[in-house]
């Protein structure tokens, strides 16, 4: 089932997500729905807070970038209770976007290599090191589970220039070719 993507301005996107256990209700169904939602929205990653759930879960599929980085050809993973243990290497800029912030793309500088500890969809504990675009996608989605959005990494001047666009998104004044849920009006 395709779930609505929660838009910029919704409080769930700013919460630090909670860890879950293997008996989380309908976890397999949720993961399947997140894959379906991500693909229907043409994303390469989707975190649970983006579908309204403040839990430490995200899915990624880097295959759309396989032309640039062949190692991403079959790079499809589920991350549960993930924590980045180390970020290192030369920081590099890349233009990022976000399903919760449609129509906004900005250059973000991130470290080139990460080591992350997480549980896979079978709750097997993993510790892996990733670099390049794989690391970047993981960093972006991991940020969602900490209540951080990619625009938080944009320099203050560029961020001020985005204020109107971000406010419009939070008010539902945006075109997206996927189902969205906008913050309730106060």
How does this model look, in words?
The protein has 186 residues and is α+β, with helices and mostly antiparallel strands. The chain is 23% helix and 26% strand. It has helices at residues 27-40, 132-145, 156-170, and strands spanning 5-6, 45-47, 57-61, 76-88, 92-96, 106-110, 113-119, 125-131, 180-181. It has a 5-stranded antiparallel β-sheet with strand order 2-3-4-7-8, with helices on both faces. A two-stranded parallel ribbon has the order 1-9. A two-stranded antiparallel sheet has the order 5-6. Strand 7 (113-119) and strand 8 form a beta hairpin. The longest helix is centred in the C-terminal third of the chain and has 15 residues, at 156-170. The two termini are 29 Å apart. The relative contact order is 0.22. The model has no long low-confidence stretch (mean pLDDT 96).
Our measurement of the CA-to-CA distance between the termini, rounded to an integer number of angstroms, reads 29 Å
Question: Major sheet: size, sense and barrel closure?
Answer: 5 strands, antiparallel
State the name of the first-level CATH class.
Alpha Beta
Strand line-up across the major sheet? 2-3-4-7-8
Could you say what the CATH topology is called? Answer: Peptide Deformylase
Mean pLDDT: 96
Tell me the domain tally. Answer: 1
Shape: globular
Q: In the CATH hierarchy, what is the architecture at level 2?
A: Alpha-Beta Complex
CATH level-4 homologous superfamily: Peptide deformylase
Number of helices: 3
Radius of gyration: 16 Å
Low-pLDDT residue intervals, each spanning 5 or more residues = none
The total of beta strands comes to 9
Estimate what percentage of residues fall within beta strands.
25-35%
Secondary-structure-derived class: alpha+beta
N to C succession of SSEs: EHEEEEEEEHHE
């Amino acid at each position: 089932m395709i779930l609505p993507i929660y838009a910029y301005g919704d409080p769930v996107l700013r919460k630090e997500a909670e860890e879950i256990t293997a008996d989380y209700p309908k976890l397999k169904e949720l993961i399947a729905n997140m894959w379906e939602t991500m693909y229907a929205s043409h994303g390469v990653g989707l975190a649970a807070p983006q579908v309204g759930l403040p839990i430490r879960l995200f899915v990624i599929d880097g295959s759309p970038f396989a032309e640039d980085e062949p190692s991403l050809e079959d790079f499809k993973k589920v991350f549960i209770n993930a924590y980045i243990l180390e970020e290192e290497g030369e920081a590099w800029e890349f233009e990022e976007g976000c399903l919760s912030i449609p129509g906004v793309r900005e250059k973000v500088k991130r470290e080139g290599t990460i080591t992350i500890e997480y549980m896979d969809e079978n709750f097997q504990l993993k510790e892996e090191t990733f670099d390049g675009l794989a690391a970047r996608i993981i960093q972006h989605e991991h940020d969602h589970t900490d209540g951080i959005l990619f625009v938080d990494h944009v320099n203050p001047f560029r961020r001020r220039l985005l204020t109107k666009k971000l406010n419009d998104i939070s008010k539902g004044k945006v075109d997206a070719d996927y189902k969205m849920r906008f913050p309730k009006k106060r």
